[in-house]
Fold these 2 entries.
Entry 1:
Amino acid sequence: MPAAPILDVRGLTKRFAGLTALSNVTFSLAPGEILGLIGPNGAGKTTLVSLVSGTLEATSGEIVFDNEILGDMPAFRRAQLGIGRTFQIMRPFPGLSVVDNVAVGALFGTGGGERELAKARERAMEKLEFVGLAHRAAQRAEALGGPDRKRLELAKALAMNPRVLLLDEVMAGLNNVEIEAVIAIVRKVRDQGMSILVIEHVMKAIRSLSDRLLVLHHGEKIADGAPDTVLNDPRVVEAYLGRRRA
Amino acid sequence: MKTLVSLIGGIAAALVAASASAVITLGASVQLSGPLANTGRYYRDGYEMAIDTINKAGGVKVGGKSEQLELKILDNQSDNNLAVRQYVQLVTQDKISLLLGPFASDAVIATSSVAEKYQVPMVQGGGASDQIYSRGYKYIFGTLPAATKYFESTIEAMGKLNPAPKTVALLYADDAFDVSVAKGTRDLIKAAGLTTALDERYSTNASDFASLLARIKSANVDAVLVAGHETEILNFIRQAKSLSVSPKIYSFTVGVPSADFRKALGKDADFAFGMTSWLPTATLTDQWFGNAEKFEQAYKARFGYEPDYHAASAVADVEAYAKAIEAAGSTDPQKVRDAVAKLNFDSLYGPIKFDEKGQISLPQTVIQVQDGKVVPIYGGKGFIEKPRYPMPAWDKR
Amino acid sequence: MDLLWQVLVNGVLLGGLYALMALGLALVWGVLNIVNIAHGAFIMLGAYVCYYLFAGLGLDPFAALPLAMLALFVFGYVVQRYLLNLVIRAPMFNTLLITFGIDVVLTLLAQLAFSADFRTINPTYAGSNFMLGSATVPFVRVIAFGIAVGLTLLLWLFLTRARLGRAIRATAQNLVAARLYGVEPRRVYALTFALGAALAGAAGSLYGVVSQVNPYIGGSLTAKSFAIAIIGGLDSPLGVIVGGLFLGIVESLTSLYIGPTYSDVASFGILVLVLIFRPSGLLGRTA
Amino acid sequence: MNRFGVVAIVVVVLALLATVPWIASPSIIQFGISTLLMAVLAQSWNIIGGYTGYASFGNSVFYGLGSYGVAIAMVQWNLPFGVGLAFGAVLALLFALLIGLPVLRLRGHYFAICTLALAEVMTAIVSNLEIAGRNTGLVLPLLRGDALFYELSLGLLALTTLTVAYIARSRFGFGLIAIRENEEAAAVMGVDTTRYKVAAFAISGFFTSLAGGIHAYWITFLDPVSAFDITLNVKMIIMAVFGGPGSIFGPVVGAFLLSAISEVLSTKISTLASLFFGFVIIVAVVFMPRGLADLGRRFRSVGWRYFAENVRRNRL
């Protein structure tokens, strides 16, 4: 019997005005596991992350985090329990400095975060160093370019000291060297004991990073298992390549 | 373009004017812009006209010496809070200790506390509500007769019409003046033994009277008395026409005496009754203008529109100061205040004598628009001209 | 019963005028995301244009109406092209503030140019009416109602059928989309705003015919237009008609049954409730 | 400039301002009172508008509730001024909590229009309330004590500014700023957005109501239209935005500057003052939409190009 999962998703369904974005998806995430989430565009990956983080409300289904059913718990309370996420379309606080962007995560985040500003900034600097953005700490976030914004997004989530980290395409638009750096960071984070759900399009990266892969297609789970097995699954191949053949 | 040039000229003049000396300055803050500017101008023009005329006649004698009057007027943009601040500034910064008033009861209520606070007199012709005089203030004087009695002569005249109206609808706006009017009118209606079919308060600046008119029509009311503002009454009459509502008589507290109002309505103004505390007749005489008829002509020639009782009331305020300063032989605010309280003279506007609360009493003459002209109908001594009564239906005019 | 019927008729006719007043505001808000506080001042200007054509040139007010629309169209185009376009990407409350500034300036200039005198556009037939059952129906109000509904339908057809109209609707979704229709966004913005101003010009002309005009009527008309636009929703001109009729009827009934001083409580209270419970309007899609 | 330097300057300026009633003429004092109260309004708005990013056009509701709290307590119930202030503040807090909850769910223009409508609703409701003197309003007892009103206003401004300074450096303030910058991102980082917004609204309303209460007793007269004055909303926003929303001293400086300009104008050129006011708004929005605080920060490095850059950045 494996360790009790930290995150357990059962029969999750989300409909938008008649359109089913996610249909009866079930999976779990073990402590210290890196779970890759892949699927073609519009498969419902970001919707899934939003449902878990609480920015969207599920139509039906259950999300259990550390033996607690989340139900209609608001996003901020989930964050305080230890669910951190990044956004695919990056959402920095444009008017704040880079370090203060991250400090928000430290001030709030898991368990309500730091009470004091100075300590939060300290933690923020640590995380910036960790993701390699310390040299731009004093700049306004809106001045950052694409790759740095990705790093900032990651640092903000990390500063929350989450127990589960949901990463929504943090590698999109990066070059190979940058991707390698991010992979290293994610591995290090896992080594600190965090459980991670990664959405990624860069297949090579996700294959080497994930312990397990989950594939969504048209809102349904079509595969769940070891990366090599899953990627050779004919249904997965068809989902990705089917259109090209036809 | 012309307006702009004259404006710039005006600014320059205002900047230069502040330096003259050995004159008696009267201060006022009046609605020269904003929603009340239309009536506010009567006060500015009335004050200016009176001051110029008095100055031309040799000014005011103080202790044997003749001094000229001068006016410092500010625009309060129809904002009562700004008006209060401007009066404080007039008193404290410009050292003006004789104040003239703004238009409208609520503005007077707000600003008269400045006069009371700094113990300088304010003689005003713009507010008639009893709220002004019920606070026991010592420094406020008013030349508009009591709001509660605006409809007194009208209701008296109604009793003598044939056939006399039996049911009355009373409509009033919810501001200080009109609420006072309604309060007084209610008693008058009761005393005259009339039946009140409708007694309704409406919001100041209301533009839709269709529901009220429908109720008037369905109750088949004989007489409609409206206490409100000119814009509301314009809408009321236009909508009465379009809904074919024609009671035997309708009368309005404001509008009817004002030329601008009659012009806006054209023929539709006919048959409307109103009241005025002043008529430009040759029999009304004073020391400076000669008589009210001459004043009317001079005023019209200078400003390009006809004066009504607001303008005459403003003139009376200035005349009251001239008389009081001469009687006191001083411009000391305390002495002038005491002299104002004892005044008893004939002004262009009528006899000025303040009661212990500071208000004068003047009878209201009932007037009616007949063929576009204002005709006096009923005064203290009975009918003056024949009223056109009852009002014909709109399609029979 | 007769009374209720009459008041309902009044409410419907009032509602038609209300709808036209709010139409331009809703268009500009929905498409450009500009909340034009000066909208009432535009209505006021339209009323003056119509008044001077009527009183000065003796033109019938309904013949003057298209000219008033044209004048306001040009004015609106200039205001958007050379002023509002400069601040379109500034923080949100800046556009509110600048239209407030425009409102202040227009109101004061109107007083300087036209004086504070009250004006009415009062053609000889202004007071004529006919009976509909037991209710008296004012003739000009019916025409005004017809014009209001007609213009609304025209706008709706224009937005859904005409190429430029579709470009305008596309702009509401996405700035770049306008380019797909081969129209420069700056021009789409200016044209949309000009269209809104022209509708205000029409509303002003009709307002002058049924009510009175002075430089200060703008403020309360803007507030009313807000209420109607929100209640009806910003999606479609047809929603605005519903909002206008709804508000006209509610105000008339409030005035009849509760008291004339409560009609503002009703209209703005409903506005707040709609915003809270159905922010996309009574007819709009719920989120 | 270090923190000690700022504190020292503020203390000196405060001390100087506090001596005004003993050295200045009555008209300066009364100008001072209205300016200080205006600055309180701008500063209070800064909490909800500047820091939290919710452009409230309904803060005059708080102002009106504060005014009526004092007026009703003093005129109808013969209670002392202090009790009236407290009563008004309680009304404002209740309003912020009850109305804030649903209304603060709206964003952008919808929030602005909803708050604007609330000001209209309150005007309409109060003008039907017997206890508030209906639309004719209430007349308060006269107190000849402008020095007292001045010091009260100054004290209130100091307290409000101190609160803002504290907020700007606190966890709470960081939460508010995060909400302003991106509400959804703030929520997933653990900011209890609803509670924070309502708290900001309530604090803003609390100080605004106190300003209203002081103003009512000072001006001795109050009616619904002046109490819930909609242009007052615009004025406080202009002053805050002109000075720099989301900064500690910007709104105060903005209020002082604009009040001084408009006071001079309304005495010198009277009618044209409001025309000028309109032009100032337009020009300020076009050329310096981020206020004096941003101008001060960036003008030194950018120079006159600052204005052109603002236009370039914000135009279509």
Note: Chains B and A do not touch (no CB pair under 8 Å).
Entry 2:
Amino acid sequence: MIHLQWPVMLAAVLAGLGIYGVLARRNAVLVLIGVELILNAANLLLVTAGTRQDSLFAAGSVITLFVITVAAGEISIALAVILVMFRRFGHIDLTAVPDLTPDAPEPEPTTGVQGEVVER
Amino acid sequence: MAVTILVLIPLVAAIVLFAMAPSATADRLVALVASIGAAVLAIVVSALRLDVDVMWIRSLGIRWHLAPDGVSIALILLTALLTVGVVLHTLHGPPPQGGSRSTLLGCVLLVEAGALGTFLARDALLFFVAFEVVLVPMWVLIRRFGDHHRTDAVRADAAGRFIFFTVLGSTLMLIGILFLVYHQGTSDLDVLAAAHADRLSHGLQVAIAALLLTGLGIKVPLWPLHTWLPAAHTIAPTAGSVLLAAVLLKMGTYGIVRLAVANVPAGVATLSPVLAILGVVGVIWGGLACLVERDLKRLVAYSSVAHMGFVALALASGSHTGLQAALFGNIAHGIVAALLFLVVGDLKEQWGSADLAVARASLRDSAPRFGVPLVFGFAAALGLPGLVSFWGEFLALYAAWSPAPGRPVALLRACVVVGAVGLAIAAGYALRVLRIVWAGEGGNPAATPVRDLRGVRRGLIVTLVGAMVVLGVGPQLLLHLSDLDAAGVLGAVRR
Amino acid sequence: MTWVVRLIVVVPAIAGLAGLLLGRSRPIARGIAVGAAAATTVLALAQWVAPLRTADVTTFGALPLGDLSVPLHLLSDRLSGLVSFVVALVVLAIQTYTVWYLRDDRRYPPFAAGVSLFAAGMLLVVQSSDLVLTLVGWEIMGWCSWLLIGHDSERAAARRAAYKAFLVTRVADVAMVVGLVTLSVRARSTDLLAVITQPEGAALLTFGLVCVVIGVAGKSGLVPFQDWLPDAMEGPTPASALIHAATMVAAGTYVIARLFTLYAADDAARTVLAVLAAVTMVYAAGLAFAQADLKRLLAYSTLSQVAIMLAALAAAPASVGVGPGIGHLIGHAFFKALLFLGAGWLAALVGSTALAAMAGRGRSDVLLRWGMAIGLAALAGVPPLVGFFTKDTVIDAALEGIGDGAGFRAWVVAVALFATVLLTAAYCMRAWLLLDTPPPAPTGVTEGTEGSLDVEAVAARETERPLDVSERHREPEAVDETPPARPDHHPLHAEPHESRLPAQLREAQLLPLLRTVSVAALAALTVLGALLLLTLAGSLHVGWLSALVSVLLIAGAAGAVWAASRRGARDAADVVPDRVRAGAVAGYGADAAYAALGRAVIAVARLVVVLDRDVVDAYPRAFAATAHAAGRAGVRTHRAVPSVALIGVVAGVLLVAVLGVTAWR
Amino acid sequence: MTTTPGLDVVTLLPALIPLAGVVIVLVADLVVPRFRGFPYALAALASLGAAGAAVPGVVGGAGAVRETFCMTGGWFAFGPGPGAPSYSQAQAATECLWRAGTLGSSLQLGAGLAAAVCLALAWPSVRGRSAEVSREPVEAVLFLTALTGTVVVAASRDLGTWLVALELATLPVIALVALSGTRAALAGAMQLLVTSLVSFALLAVGAALWFLATGAPFFSRDAALAAGHVSQGGTALAAGQQPSVALLSLSLVLILAGLGFKLSLVPFHAWTPTAYACSTPAVATFLATVSKVGALAALLVVVQALAALSTPGLIAVAVLAAASMTLGNLMALRQDDVVRLLAWSTVAQAGWVVLPLVSVSPLGQRSAAIYLLTYVAATLVAFAVVARTVREVGSRGLSTAAYGGLWKRSPWRAGALALALTSLAGLPPGVIGLVGKVVALRPVIVEGWVWLAVIAAGNAVLGVAVYLRWLRPVVNPSEAEAAAAGEPAGPGVSPTGRRLAITMALVGSALVLLVVSVQPQLLLGLFGS
């Protein structure tokens, strides 16, 4: 077992960078990247811990895979929302106060129909 | 079983009344039958000392344990009988402003159910639950049926004050109860009282007593916590004021006896100086406020603060006499306040306001049937012997002069002197009111006199006057009722 | 026989309640009032004749109070028997008289009921063997005095006087309550005998006894509580008679007499009592001389006389006991009731109680004239009337007290007594001269008495005073034979005169008879009352020397007044400088002092209201305001900006991490 | 050393039924795309099925644990210190990937029922079918998927399942919010998205730290104990292993923070009002109920593992609880929009939910779950009334003024609303809310946190003020006339028949609330005694 400190410290650096990105960036996509950095830190930690002896099921690696998969799904939804947001608002600035004025008149109970049209 | 039914009758009737269409006329029947039925059953339950004890919420160990005993019987009867009176009073008056009569009656009956539950409960947490039941209906009574000569904001303020103060108090009480229950391992009041807080350290007892006294003190109300009362009383409709003064305030003092004095005696003993001081400050404070108060209902409310101060003083003494005095004072104030609020409420109904500065025809000549009960009521309010409140107040002073061992004698005696001064102030404000309203000081003899009392409302008021005189002449009737159980409550102190 | 003891209290109490409840009809009210008074008198007579000498007549049973014994017993012995009888007798006379006096008053029924209740209160004090019962009776009397004084509540002066009377006595009752509580705490019982025989707790004892003295001072009108009593003259004359003769003001004497065993052993409390009584008797007698109103004169004389009774208790040696004090109580009851009833009669004749208006009208009826003469003579202490005996017994007791080594308090009392004798004789003589000397000019009633008119003007100018003479012209104005309706007579409540004409006529003849009988009976009692005192040990003990001195003093004073009045040609009080007189009429500012005190209390009350609103209630309002302000501020910070939310998240993580890691154990 | 995991289909049914529902809805949409209500009906049935499948785990009693995917085996954490019981020894017993005790099963039951109500609220208001898009099956599927995640997370024990299920419960909801595509919906979705992403990242880090600290991929007592013992007995190992308890605590606080977002605890709450207000009532209801159940279930999984350490009360939980209550109530006090009011009330109630967790004991866990379910029941009723009103009067139904005089117009609905609001406020007649208050405060008292209890008492007052703000117009007739006068038969008013589903949901949830108010034991008993 080699020193675990180094990977852990790397993970800490990654997480710190990610948090900085999340806080400092106004652009939604860049924020997403920050989130990815944090997730990578988590993955690194998991893999590191999984390298220890007798860690059965290869749990560290398996969970890492899980996290990567979940992150992928998450990003897809996130990008979809960001895309629609860009079409609707014309920007993806997270520091802007959102414009909550009602959209173009549409039948009250069936809101959202147009939303999906746009998404296509 | 009968006890459960006793609580359920008003509850079910209230629900029926709420569900009733506003135009329905069956509300009269439902409310009358329910209140009278509950009163009869209350008498039966009290006479036979029926009880019920089944598990209610097993997970929390809360038992559906309802039983009357000497400490509570008088209050149960007062509640049940007074509700009949309030219902009759409402039925024989003009239709209430602000909502349908059935809703008003439903709220009244719901308050009755909660009060009966509170007085009957022998489980600390059940007590808490029942204690809370009265809040929302009373809030509706004040908020919706309150004085419609005032702006909506004033009604909102009064109703809000009532419910916020009380919720704060009851949550603090709940914390105290939970402490008690956790450390004693049971919430059954009989078991708790029998345990005499043996397992609690002194500091813990003081802490629990402080929580309970603060929480219940808001309801009583003790001096600096009283500011909700005048507003609520002034705005509430007559039915609400009567129930508030005669029933709801009693829940506070009853709770102090039942929860604090019985279960954490040493804690209460430690805090008794504070209780006594706040009590007499309330006596003086309320009395002085009455001396210059212009609104008659508000005045009666402040006098309630003063009278409950005597009860607090009696409780602070910790002796058997003190406890008896407190219980008696409770009932006495219940009857007197009910009478005064009925009379004043009826007057306000006709006057349109209760402002003493308005020149009106004197009651003595124009409406003696209002005047005489008013004289009786204020005579009782100043502690006139022969009427019911004298005994509570005199015995409270006696008890505080010779408190239980271990209490600060000098301080309590100083409180007695101050409290006695409060009696003189009481005379001052009582006669001030009578001088203005009854004898016509600053009045206008040419003003349109009020329609005199008649019919059921008159009967109601005469009955209350009668009760005041009977209990004033024969206080033993009540004192015997509570004697043994009061001794039981104090068992821990005596040992 | 114990039922007699109880009935003595219960009968008038029931009569009072019944009068309130059933008193719509005047004949029924009359029947109840007079009947109950008569029955009570008979019962009291029976009790007096055959006292039970028991102290444990049960009433409603003891109160179950654990550590306090409250037996609520009544007591029947010679003392209570005699006093009860006298009280009942006086009440009977007053009730009878009232039937005539308030013949046109539509509030007669509640008035009569009030008198009955008042009597019940006094009799309860007399019969009580329990401090609580004493207090009950004591307070009931106070309340009834409020009702009776404020009887004519249309008049502001009456309302104010009633309020003042009750409040002043109630303030003193603070001490009374504390005193009684103290005494009962010593014995852990409110039973009179237990309290008297309890040997321990000397310090508390003195405190309690002094408190009781203060309480008594209130009801009995000792300085500084004296000023309510003259004002109480606003009540109808029978009420004044009741309050002044045998009941309320004298009740204090009786209470102290009952506790005499304790007082006899306590020099401090008795000194307080002696000083208060001595000051009061001289002061009040002096003021009485200057009064321009007959009823107020009598009121001040009452103050003075009650102080004499209390001085007897303060100065008499333990061996002499309560006899002198109680004796004077009884004698005073007779002659003062007589004087008041006579004053009422007079006032009914002239329509006013001002002495100036009454000049010479005492001659209009022979019974009235002689009644007033006997009464005034008895008040002055002229032998062989009852006042002479009782007063000289008191003087004798005080002198014995000096001999007994009582020292200061006996000396004070003795000196004050002689001064009072002098003054009393003076004002009695003055009053008699005013009443009995016909006015010089046949047309004007008031011309000959310029001095007194000035005084009345002075009195009238004092707007603060409730006792504006002009307002007091409210006694039944017409002569009794043709009773017209009073101006304020409400037609709705009036008796249906026309429909019952024969009964009306019968009444017209009967009613004056009732008046005459009651005055005559009291006059007789004033002459012969000393005989009653023979049954009470120590109540008749006239020393030769002191009697001689006092008779000489009386004669001298009377002569001087006669001279000063130029043989009745003018008011003897005119020799007093006007300013002094005006001050005397106004009670030397006592009323203003009370009013100032009241204003001070009201100022404090206003402060309390302000504090209540702006301090005590500030916290809940501040809480509400803070909550709303915080909510507003919160709304401003929550504008749905995603990055703000992120900052929140990260800050929260940091917070939680710091807290979590540091607090972890 | 390991065995093949056993598989018990019956035990897994609570998760399998909604999954099957997803498939059936999609297939049905292909086959019969005509009926707009059909997907909702299927989905609601599947939710109820899930709830039903959880019942055996509930009624089994306190001891009954339904577990599957069990495997026997063991693995080393860090090297065992001498004398300290090693994790490998403990692992001679079985470890199960799916383990639903009464606590978990009860939460599953609650989630299933709540989801069914949400689906009923989402029922389309117009009969027939719009030609172009097929929104209904998508919505139903998203609901069901999120429910599945919730159900699974309540029973998960290993880090992988836990993380996946948690996201499965979250991501569909973001889609649900965004689905309508309006500006508001996007704003809400964006709020929800960014916070949820960051939270998930933190959760992942937290989970990784747990794994690092314990060496076990399970949230189990033994794992926690192993970490605890390693540090306490830490004689043999190098300094590198020493901070494992610190790591454990750090992992816990990160997990707490991550879940705090889902529970809407202050300061992770900022998405709540926007997301609620920007979505349809049904989605808001789902966010307010099922999502919260999932979050608490996830938290309880961790706390259960922690209970073995007999750690003292968690000050972080206390601070979050106090802050949530206070801020939530203060903000709710200013809201006139009922959905926003309910959103802030969610924040406040979340504080009450985690309040008992200052004691990590079983008592604390049970209390939190009980309080959560009382909150869910009451909130469902409140949202059902809102949904019903919105259907009636359109978006005006979102302001409190729209409820003026409801008592007069529709006493039953007003009664249900009053019951719900008083339950949330903790006042009778909502006895269950009162009992919930008792339940929530009890662990606080047991731990002796008086200051926290006093803050809670103050917040009880604020809470009452909040709910009375809404209750006031309901009972006040003076505003009834105003409301009635200004109420035209607007275009949003739909035919009566279309409100049947909402009405049924309202009646159902109100009945549940009423029954548990009369006999709270029925709810409390779910968790054993």
Note: Residues 205 and 503 of chain C are 60 Å apart (CA to CA).
